[in-house]
Amino acid sequence: MDYTENIGKKVSKGSITEEQKLKRANKFKPFKSGFKVNTVKGVITHPIINVPAYTFEEDDSYVECRRCKLV
Predict the structure, then answer these.
(1) Nearest alpha carbon to residue 11 among 48, 47, 60, 64
(2) Which of 9, 54, 55, 68 is the most exposed place for a label (fewest CB within 10 A)?
């Protein structure tokens, strides 16, 4: 998947697996900015787990792309 297609789009943070989704049931953690929705600024390689991660306009955080859902 080409995650760069989502630059400029809004995403929310979720979980990777269905089991985690059922446990959390709409209790998604906010981004570092405090918002539940952020705007994708770019795509980097996650420095710890070496997978694609989004960076955001609203703060200086990054989140694994698989954990984000377009809104």
Answers:
(1) 64
(2) 9
Tokens 């703060």 appear where?
59
> For residue 28, what are the domain limits?
3-70
In this prediction, residue 25 carries a pLDDT of: 53
The string of pLDDT tens digits covering residues 10-61 is 999 987 765 555 555 556 789 999 999 999 999 999 999 999 999 999 999 9
Q: How far out from the chain centre does Cα 23 lie? A: 18
Number of domains in the chain: 1
Give the 3-state secondary structure of residue 66: helix
H helices of the chain, in order, are 18-24
